[in-house]
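Re: export button greyed out
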Amino acid sequence: MAALLTATGSDYSQSMASATADIVAEEDVLIRRAKRSDARAFEALYRVHVDKVYGLCLRMTGNVSEAEDCTQEAFIQAWNKLDRFRGDSAFSTWLHRIAVNAVLGRIRKSKREQDRIQAVADTRPAALETGDSGELRDLAQAVDRLPEGARHVFVLHAVYGYSHDEAAAMLGIATGTSKAQLHRARKLLAQQLEEQGFEV
Amino acid sequence: MTETFDDKLNRAARQLSTEISPEHDLWPGIAEAIEPAPRRSRWTPMLAQAAAVVLLVGASSGITYILTSDSGGPVTQVSPELVFEQASFGTDYNLGPEFQEARNGLRAELDAEMDRLSPEARADIQANLDLIHNAIVDINAALAEQPDNVVLQQKLSRAYREELTLLRRVGGLTRNVMTRNDI
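Workaround output, generated via the alternate export path:
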């Protein structure tokens, strides 16, 4: 029985590894075609990755309209910079970096335009659109209310699992600053959730 | 061993969705930007951008006002007149009956709740709804000249959704104001 389970598990692992390899190979083909200005191949890449990119943008901006704009901007930038993608990291990670840059660039631009992002954040709360339910929705809303720096680090590190070094590099801050912002985020989240009656 | 708050927070954070589907297809806007397009005039997208900014800033100031205002004062009804210039536009956007039902329901709910707000707050909300209406009219005018302009189609769709969100938010906020005052 144990041997059967082992064999089945092994088969399953091989099958999953094979499927993953197929997906990566297919993605490589699409990337090569997109690099040759094949917009259809790029659209296929968009279809595969848009939820990951939009999810990150939505978590970082806390706002639906801004997340949509940042997602579009990220894919446009990705198209323009596709030649520079050498495959050192996964394509999704490369897209995430571009998306973070799009969000940061938009925030800088918006600050020059009278804090437009804040204005938008007032009208388009993200937490209703994320598909989170119950207590997770409460957490998502609390994350949306975090100050920008703390929110960005929390999203990249705690939600998306990037290390402090990776998050700091993406955000253009020191690793120590990333750690400090995470500490701040946790403290503020504890306060917010406690006020809402959650056991902290 | 008891679980600390940080442990609970980390666990919950990892359960948040990392892949979220946008409400509508964002590809047409991207395709327009990356594929060479025939020469087109620049004034309509700029007009749409300006209208969108007016819409968003206006909506924000309305909400901020409500949050900082007390309720009370004589009762007046806010005019419910916001028009649908187009029920559908382009190949991807169609304001179905659900949209119109949701909008009408929110509008009726808002009118009832507005009675609790001060005349100044009501006037401010009306001014902001007028701004949204004007933005929708402007974008529609631009779309009439360029019906296939995907960016304009997206802006119009967004403007309608912004209106719905504003109605929903203002409705929720007036309920909060009532709760605080009742206490």
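Residues 2-35 of chain A form the longest helix (34 residues). The button fix ships in the next patch.
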